[in-house]
Amino acid sequence: MTFTDDRRFPAALSAVARVEFDYRDGLGVDYEPYDRFNTAEEEAFWFRLWTGNTELTGDRLRVFGQDGSGGYVAFWIARPDAPLVEQPVVFFGSEGGVWVVARDLGRYLWLLAEGYGPLEAPDPDGTGGAGDTDGTECEPVRNEEAARIAEEFAPGRELPAAEIVREARAEFPDFEEVIEALCR
Predict the structure, then answer these.
(1) Rounded mean pLDDT of 25-43?
(2) pTM of the full predicted structure?
């Protein structure tokens, strides 16, 4: 089983890096997209700090953005032999929470278009592990610029935000446990 070591920044993420995300005094999207991946050294450094495990390298993560508190959004290289853009998008909160945001980049683009960021991703099942646990902290407003990017890079893949998260959680139900097992 081989996992991709691709560090080429996807064109869709380059386009997202130019989008303005409106925080709206805490009711909007707290998302700061990057215009490149962190280096392997940067990823190893933060992942070791985040987990408390000095043996980890973070080699199965590609960080491409953050929220205002320092939480990171990344690809989690979980599908052997799949291209980078087909890997799940995950979030590592600054306070220790982790969750799967979308099953792949295409779905993530539609989540952004629906007015959610990785921190604000809805908790469709009320089971915890997503930023918007009670539905009152985020008032999503469709982001037309992000929607144009989603149409360009993931046409015909639009779903409601809650369904995007539900589908990702169903495919990767053990993500939290995998990460917790790495923590010291």
Answers:
(1) 91
(2) 0.91
